[in-house]
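Q: Can someone sanity-check these two? First one:
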Amino acid sequence: MKEINVLPEYNPGEINFNPIPLFQYRASLKDEVSKGKITIDEALKLYRAMLLIRNFEFMVVDLSTGNFVPYDGFKFIGATHLYVGEEANAVGIMSVLNKDDYITSTHRGHGHSVAKGLFAIYQMDDNQLKKFLGDWPTDNYGSLREAAIDYHLFQAMAELLGKEEGYCHGRGGGMHIADFYTGNLGANAIVGGSFAIATGAAMAVQKQGLDRIVVCIIGDGAMNNGIAHEAMNWASQRQWKKGLPIVYYIENNQYGMTGQQRGEVTGIDYLSQRGAGYNNVNMHAETIWGMNVLTVREAMLRVRERLLNGEGPILVESMTYRFLGHNYKDKGVAYRSEEEKKAWMNEDPVTRLKNELIEMGALTERDAEHENEVARKKIEEITKKAANATDPVPKDMYRGLYAETTSDNIGEEYRTKNLLKKPRKYTRDSEGKMLFRHAVAEALTEEMIRDKRVIVYGEDVADYGGAYQVTLGLLDIFGRERIFNTPISEAAIVGTGLGAAMVGLRPVVEIMYIDFILLAMDQLGNQVAKARFMFGGKMTIPLVIRTTIGGGKGYAGQHSQSLEAIVAHFPGIKVVIPSTAYDVKGLLKTAIRDDNPVLFIEHQMLYVDKGEVPEGVDYTIPFGQARIVREGRDITVVAYSNIIKNVLSAAEILEKEDGISVEVVDPRTLVPLDIDTIAKSVNKTGRAVVVNQAPYTGSFASHISHEIQQNSFKNLKAPVRVVAAYDVPPPMARPLELENIPSVERILKNIRETLNY
């Protein structure tokens, strides 16, 4: 489906960039009120919100230094990345957002959480307030809204203190506060970690036709991270019919931790200049003065309107300053001068708005002192309650790690109603057998028809059908809204999948080779795997990451690895690795319907294998159920993926030449692992060999060996053996590669030695 011709064009010329606005806003509160852009009551809300944030942060300082002790024996633990001085940004942003708009936040995110919840509560009706409040007592409050504000602050502080009543049940702490009810998709302690997540959320918002925007709040240091480039390029792709509704809001407080953006770790004066690299309108980039809440508010009003008009993505750099150090222990003396700090503190956003309110006659100095004291006392009382809240109990350690739900039963509203073309009927032979790759395609087709929330994307998956032609033809059926090509950006592929899954889609993303997944390790291991548990188990992540493993084709060290053990090491991800066409269809359909992230590994050498495959949209295979591939009585061999063919060949030779009966077990899923079936087999035979294609050290075969010894030790007649690749990168030369991958001969040797022990 060729749509764009790329012709040889090389006429002389030059590339010009549009100007990027710097500090254009110059209005005062008096001007804004006179123009009807803000009321005094609205300005007072901004002021009070900043006071709450500042007093919240000062309380964190007092807790961590021991200046405030909520009860005898209290000991503060946890991170303290403070927001003092930057309050105008959180308050200015959130005052403009609707309750249902989304944000992602940073490790310095207490202020974002407080402000997002606060302004969302201002917009809630009584029913929404009651739902938000749950069992929180309201008798002593003048209104539900007043109670909700206290409950919100309590949950934020309780989370920071690691309490069960915290927003994330104490699983995330202060660097990972999330509240999905108010659109807070979570703070992120990995610098730049939320770039792709927010971008995926914006993609999901657009594809679902939601009237919402996404604000990706990041620090200046994050702009030097690779995921920043991947995400902003992703959001700027011309294939989107409308611009993604996302603003990347840089809180440039001048320092990453101690490294200075200007004059030290970058080559530019303003980070907004980066916008020129992504589209022809510079991402509508601008730099604003972030020490004035009215400036931030004015900018965000324009941003939100533009995003809803399809003019995203947008890049905003806010010049701001953290008055305190990187954390409470950092005094800032090693990298900041007193002159610099004093100059910035003279621009204090709280003091600025206070003075403007006094000038307008809306406050007196005494009023301002009273407002601050009200905020201080509120935070103090909330902190006492939070400190005395419930500690999580160890027996609930695993709560929230995995969702127990699936999309097996969905309503008609989720069915795909219109197809561009009648789906292909994949051929089965007279024995009901079909190609492995066609079984994958059939599963994808059926699930995309069954559930319109399922989208497929990755490198070259659309017109070309992927490196192994697995997705060929899906574009003709579903169009580019449902299947599309991506940049070569593995981290963004995985991270946007997470964000899209959090906001209502069910993405199936492809990483062409598992070797390339190392480019996405942060997004996979720190984001996808941890998000549900870290955010209190309050959302689902229906994300499938399809990938392939190679070996046997001479592709050498960067296209032939078997890295399943690396991903299995991250709690929170399920790992599936089928070895037959029968299994790949049933397991893939289960993966797509699962409400948890799944790494789905297909071996390239299996794509042209044939096997019997059941028909029907409801054919699935449950996870955690191993398959007895071959029954036997003398020894158990556990293997998965393509290497199982060598194991079966060895078993046939042993039966024929030695009269040895080998039982072969295929786990099918590594996480969850069906150790019961494996142990039952080993308990029967008394001997076990585990085979995989990965190197021996740290292999998943070694883990299975350990599990066998834990569960079947008293029945073992010999040590469990592991047959694996050598501890070398996969070699290209044919003799070396054939020796490296466990051969029939090497498997035979190990089985015989185990039998003769």
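And here is the second, same format, sequence then tokens:
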Amino acid sequence: MRLDAVGARLRPRRLWEGVDLGFALGREWFLSLWILWWITALPVALLLAVLTGGRPDLWLVAVWWCKPLFEAPLQSWAGRALLGERPEPAERFGIIRAALTRHILPLLLWRRLGLRRSFLMPVTLLEGLSGARARRRRAVLSHGIGVPSWLTLICYHFEAILWGGVLLALVFLIPEELPRLDLTAAVTESDSPVYWFSAAIYLLAFSVIAPFYVCAGFGLYLTRRTELEAWDLEVAFRRARNEQDAAARGSARLTLAALLAVGLVLSLPSPVAEAFAPRDAVLDPVLENGLDPGEAQVIIREILADDEFGSTQEVTLWLPLERDPTEPMDGWIWPSDLGALAVTLAEILKWSLLALAFAGLVWLAFKVIQGVAQTRPRWRRSRSGSQGEGDRPSVQLEPLGAERLPDDIAASVRRLIDKGEHRAALGLLYRASLAELARQGVAIPAGSTEGDCLALAVQSLPAPRVGLMTRVTAHWSRVAYAHRQTSGAELMSLLDDWCRARDLPTGPTRDPGAPDDA
């Protein structure tokens, strides 16, 4: 992604601020996204109406299930618009063809009921990732956050509120002389023509909420990537470099302009003495000498006699009629079937609450099982080494790589420092620190960041070890994310402190395979 071309300002935000950013983008692009949604959804909706045999209830469920199909073009359009390449109306069909690829199939099948759809959709549609790479990316982005799920639930409620609001508005605003809308039939009787009207209103609610839902998920995606990969720093560095290049290219022009300005100033004539005449010479004599009170009254009357001050205007205002306080007020005119409607809505609310309670129990059980699985330490038997160490368990942490840690970590780190491979040396030291942390029984969940591991170390290690772990983490973060290399002297000092904390010999360690100099 060309970060320097992004239209929105990339900065560290809270997750709900990312949602606000997405809603702001949705308001700005609403009309284009809304039209694109209807271009995609209308043919599919007509086809589903034929395939469902004219059953409005089945048709509405089928259209709801195909919502990712309608949201994918919106995601592609928003991705291009954010990079400053706002698509033209003639490019809409090309965007639809590019978005509806094989990557959309998981969103329509086994991941259809996921609550993070709009947040994770850019991983496949914009990044083009699939398979294991896409799974790892989704796991890292989703680690420890629940705002995307809340966003989906809130948008579902917005759709229901919009649908119910339109139906109730039609009931209360249609005069009694005209045929009234049967709310009970519109909600419960699927064989009624009014049910088709209700389903069409729900489709309209889908179209109104979809641009905001897609853009809000996209805003969350940008916020999370900025938090994890420091996009704001990268953009700042690029802009600073561009400004430096522009300043270097324009230095000659600035010098020439300065010389021309100095020459122009020197060529101006000297100011004349009349410009500094005393203030008394230019004051109005009337203000200087004052006015007689009688003359002032005459002038005031002349001014007030002018049309600007003495004219009158007639203004007509609409005022409410005064009601007789003794006259009784008419009561509300309620629909005759409001009681049956209230019973129906209460029944729907009851079953909805039961369904939500059941879904909450399932989700809670899943989280409990997942938490128990993550707290189990991951041990693997070492298959190499000496005979005395063959049965000793060695920790293998999957996020740290598949290679096995060397037996003599200090010697290996010094060997890498001598070769000039400072990044590899620091990475080995950091992996060894995490492996030792895991040997002490600390469970490190998959996908944990450096900050998460440091927080676990603070809770489990003594103060001296915590300080050393903080230094190792800081050096590793500076190398891994800021690309600032650590000098060999700093690495040797860090390694010596690491060895002292473990009662290991410090200083250079000879290679066991090297010959003696004697």
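A (reply): Looked at the second one. Residues 272-284, 375-402, 509-518 have pLDDT under 50 and may be disordered. The longest helix spans residues 193-229.
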